[in-house]
Amino acid sequence: MPVLDTPFAQLHLIRQPEQQNEPLQAFDAADEYLLNHLAEQNLPKGSRVLVLNDSFGALAISLVGSMHVTSSSDSFLAIKALGKNLTRHQCAFDAVTVIAASQPLIGPFDCVLVKVPKTLALLEEQLIRLQGQLAPGAQVIAGAMIKHLPRAAGDLLERFIGPVQASLAVKKARLLSATVEDKEPFTSPYPTRYRLDEPAIELINHANVFCREGLDIGTRAFLPHLPKNLGAARVADLGCGNGVLAIASALSNPDAHYTLVDESFMAVQSARENWQAALGDREVVVRADDGLAGQAPQSLDVVLCNPPFHQQQVVGDFLAWRMFNQARDALVVGGALYIVGNRHLGYHSKLAKLFRGVEQVAATPKFVILKARK
């Protein structure tokens, strides 16, 4: 297992979700660069450091014992990894203050370490939320692998924090150091909103929600083919995003019981607000989780899913395959998983290995809607 070796600590870290023969390590050269750079700044012991978007705990755990560390992420899996890696290194879980990205920050912070996220809207929202949370003379340092570092990231730092100095490249990573300036107060542009005609609802989308400016084309293809006449079925929207699939289904199935799950805290916040706006006080469970890992076996009749094909910057079908397995375990015998997917991903053959029957419900030139029965 690769070792993260910096002036602060030597760490053996695991990713989440875990898989056998894991081909990817739980840190990158940008993590190393951030920590090595911070060590050169000679921050006083006990300084308050905020870590944003720490994928698996590399930054936060390295600083335990040296600094008072707060870690904020929009990923349930990232926070789960932080907890597991703290335990692996004999640290108490409360050695790091953990704040979901959907919750307000509590400063002031002497230093902010930022791993630049894939979604720049999330970075924009996080930088806006730093208003009033920085101590005098605070440092804000962002890092990323160069191939994942758009120019717009530096523009956002300059707009919301102050002048930016880009570092030299080290191991294909780069840092952006922002000098804090007094700024006029900013109002966040998030959440965004858009309306649908069918069903006739308005959807709220917090900063890190997938397709926050409008309905994604996969979901648009899926909506007309959601199952009808579900009676009192127990239905889960797996990877719910802003909750549109569950809400549309619930409007057509007034007696069904719904659970909405996503690993993004901002998605869960959006889904909860959208459910209440569309369905009022109708009973629902909305939670951030590792998919259906926390769902009791054989406790669902229907699962709806528009599966992701990436985790952060890593593209692949590992998460989708895992979600299909979780759905199978959570469904009763005779229950069904409904999914939408790009034709080229070949989900039909994957589902056929897990379920006793797979049928194509509908298709467009780009997408297929499949029903897999347990």
From TrEMBL:
Matching Pfam families, A to Z? MTS, RLMG_N
Q: Where is the Methyltransferase small domain?
A: 201-371
Task: Give any GO molecular function from the UniProt entry.
Answer: methyltransferase activity
| UniProt entry tagged with the keyword Transferase | yes
**Main location per the UniProt record:** cytoplasm
Domain RlmG N-terminal: residue ranges: 1-181
Q: Which reaction does it catalyse?
A: guanosine(1835) in 23S rRNA + S-adenosyl-L-methionine = N(2)-methylguanosine(1835) in 23S rRNA + S-adenosyl-L-homocysteine + H(+)
Keywords from the named record:
Cytoplasm, Methyltransferase, rRNA processing, S-adenosyl-L-methionine, Transferase
Q: Does the keyword Cytoplasm apply?
A: yes
Q: Which Gene3D superfamilies match?
A: Vaccinia Virus protein VP39
Subcellular localization: Cytoplasm
Q: What is its EC number?
A: 2.1.1.174
Can you cite a GO biological process for this protein? methylation
What does the record give as the function of this protein? Specifically methylates the guanine in position 1835 (m2G1835) of 23S rRNA.
* Family per similarity comment: Belongs to the methyltransferase superfamily. RlmG family.
Return the protein name. Answer: Ribosomal RNA large subunit methyltransferase G
- The organism named in the record is Pseudomonas lundensis
Tell me the name of the encoding gene: rlmG
